Amino acid sequence: MAPRGRAITVLGIFLFIMGLSLSELLFVFIGTLLILSIAVTMPLFYYTVSFADIIVMRILDKDKVFAGDFVNIKVTIENRSRYAYDLVEIRDNIPEVFEVIAGDNVAVANLPPGASFTYSYVLYPKMRGTYAIGPIRLVIKDRLGFFWAEREIPSITTITVYPSYEEIKRLDILSRARFIGMEYGVHSTKQKGIGMEFLMIREYEVGDEFRKIDWKATARTGKLMVKEFESERNVEIMIFLDSSKSMAVGPPEENKLEYSIRAIVTLVKMALERKDNVGLCVFSDRVHEFIKPKSSEKQFYDILDVLAKVSAGGRSNLANAIEYAISRLKRRTLFLIFTDLEAPSSFILEGIKLAVARGHSVVVISPFGPWFEVSAEELSPVERALAEALLIEMWEKRRAVAREIEKYGVAVVNVGPDDCIPAVISEYLKMKMRGLAQV
Amino acid sequence: MQISRILLRTIALICFLISWYMLLRRIPETFFDISVTVNLIVSLLKLGIFYIYEFLLLTGLGLAILVMFAAVQIMGDGTSVSMEEVNEFYQNFISLWLPHPAEVRFDLQQFYANAPIFLIQFCIIIGILGVVAFAYIGSVRGAILSFLSIYLLILFPMICVRIGIPFENLKIEYSDPLMGVLLAVISYVGLEMSFRSSYVDEIFEKSMKRSRRIERQVNELLRFKEKISEKPQMIIPRRPLLTIDAIHYLRELIERRTRKGKYEIGRQRVLKRASAYLKDLQRKDPRIKIYLAPRITPPEERRMLLSLFKDLPLRIPLLLTITYAIVYFPKIIIEKWGSTPLTESVEALIPELTVFLLVPIVMLLLLVSKIAHRRE
After folding, report:
1. Which helix (H) or strand (E) holds A44?
2. % of chain A with per-residue pLDDT over 70
3. Which residues does chain B have within 8 Å of residue A51's beta carbon, measured at their own beta carbons?
C-alpha cells in the first residue's frame, strides 16, 4: 500500500474508533467511508495489475566500451494487457561507477492497453570492468495513489568496460601527425639489416656488400663508406600483471593496478601496431589469465577483454607465473613485469632467476605504493611526518629487493601515477632499440 | 489536460468550501475572538515566567539552607543536625512560597478556559491554509490536512465535554443525522477529487517538467564549448622571508588549486566529448532528443475527462450505499423487526453493531485482493 493509502486507512480507523467511543454516528460514517474507499479499490487494483503482460526491452548502442567513453541505452516498455496502467514508474538500475551524462534512467509513463513508451539515457562508464545494467524496477500506481505494486524485471544486459582509451587516442593522434609506428617494422629494432629505414653511415669493412657503399659519403670523406639500414624484425613481448591485493590499495580509480592496466593497454596498442607479438599473463598466487604472444588485430581485444575483468585479490607469486609462462613459450621473449614488489622477495627473485636462466630478457615496472595511495595535501602535519617515515622505510625495503634483482642484469623501473605510462613506453622503445627478444 | 485539472481542482475546492461553510456557520462567534489567543499567549508567558522564577528561587534557597546547616554543623558547638531536620525546615519554607499568588491562579484559570478555544482556532487556521495550499499548488497534503481539520474541529468539543471541561457543544446538527452524512459525503468527494487532480499533476505535469529539464540539459550539452581555464599561478617566494610553515601552507595552496584546476579541466573534457557523442547520436538517429527527454502525450481533453470521471458515477454511489448500509442497516433492522426489549435496549442505540458488518466485508475484500495479487 502506498503512503497515501496508509494515511487514509489510519485516518479512517481513527475516526471510526472515535465514533464508537463517543457513540457518534458521523464519525462512524466517515471512518467507514474512508476504510471502504481503500478496501474497495484494493481488489480492483490488484486484479488489473499484471507484470507478465508488461514487456521491457533494453538496447545498448554497444556492449563493449572504453572507460571514459559513452554508451546510449534505450529502454522500451510495452503494455500487452487489457488494462490501462495510469502511472508506471520505470527505473533502470545502473552500477554506481556509471554516471548518467544525458537523459535519466528513471521515467514515468502512463500506459493504455497496447501502448508502448520508449526513453533513452547516455551513460558515462568511468572504470573498467564487467558490469550488469538492470534489473528494471517497475512501480505501478493506481490513479488515487492508494496502492502500488512493484516488481523487478530481471532484464540484465552485461557491458564490458575496457580500460581507458585516452592515452591510446593521444598516441593515435601523435602517430597520424608524425607517421610513426603505423607501418610494418618501422622503429622495430636498431639492428642493422635489410630494411628500408636508414640507420647510419660507417666505414667499409671486409665482407660488406658493394651495393651498400654510399658513393657520396665516400667522395666526401675519401674513405669507403657504407650505409646501414634498420632491421625489420619484431619483438616477442610477454606482459606479466600482478593482480594481488596490495596492487589495489588506494583510491579505486587511481591505484597501482589501474595505472598498470592503463599503461599495459597503451603498450599493447603500440606494440601491436608495430607488429610485435604481445601476450599477457595475469597472476597473483596463481595464474588467472594467460594469452600467448600474437600480433593479430584480434589480440588487442582479447587482451582488453582480460584486462577489463581483472580484479585484485590473493598474494603475489611471480615465480609460479613465470614458470607457467615459460612452459608455454617457445621463443626468447621480453618479459615486462608489472608488480609493486610487495610480495616476499624469495618469490620475486626465484621468478627473475628462472626467466633469466632461460634466456628471456626481463624488465620490472614497479609502481611504488605510497605515491599512489595518499595525497600529501589530505594529511595533517603529524600524519604527513608519519607517512614520510613510512615512505622512507618502504623505499629502503624496495631498494634492497631491487638491488637483488639488478644482480641478474634486470632493470627495475620505479613509477608513480604521473610517469607510469611514459616510463613504460620509454622502456619498451629502449628494449626495441637494443634488439632484445626478436622473433 | 488543463481543463481536466482545473475542473477537478474546482470541484474539490467547492466541496471543501461547502464543508467548511457547513461547519463554520455552526460555530459561535465567541470562538473567533482573537483576544482568546492573545490572552492564552499572555497567560502562558506569565505562567512560564512564574514557574521559572519559582524554580530558581527554591533551588537557591534550598542550597542556601543546606550550606547554612552544614556550616552550623562544622563550626558550631558540636550539636549535630540531621537530614530530617533540614528536610522539615525546607518543607515548611516551601509551604510559605509555593501556593500560587492570586494573579497566577487567575492566569491558570484563563489558560484552562482559553486552551480549547485556541485549539479550535488552530484547527480552523490549519484547515483553511490546507484549502489554500490545495487551491494554489494542488497540494494533496493540504487537502488531507483540511479534511482532518474538519473532523478534529468537531471532535475537540466532544472530547472536552466528555472529560468535563465546560464547553459549548459543537455537534453538527446532532439531532439531524442527515446533515452529518451530508458533511461526510461532501468532504469525502472533495478529498477524492483532490486525489484525482493530483494524478493529473503527477503524471503529466511532472513528466513535462522532467522533459523540459532534460531537454535543457541536452541542449546545453550539444552547445557545449570547452572553456580554457587559467593555469593556476605559481607563488614562489623570492626571498627566504617566509617561515617553513608558511612555505608549506603556500605549497599546499598551490597543490589544491592545481588539483581543482585539473578536475575542472577533466570535467570540461568529458563534457566536450559527451557533446560530440550526442551530436553523433543525433546524426545517426534524429529522434534521439525525443527519447532522451520523452513526454507523456496527454490524451485529448474529452477523452481525459471521460477517463477521469467514468468510474465516478459507479464508485461514489457504491461506496456511499455500502457505507450507509453498514452504518444504518443494523439499526433499521432492529427497529423494524427486533423484539421490544431489544429495540428499547441501550445496545440498539450504540454504533458498535457496525463493526459486525464492516469487519467481514473488509476482510472479504482483502482476501479477494490477496488472491488477485497471488494470481499475478
Report:
1. helix A25-48
2. 88
3. 376
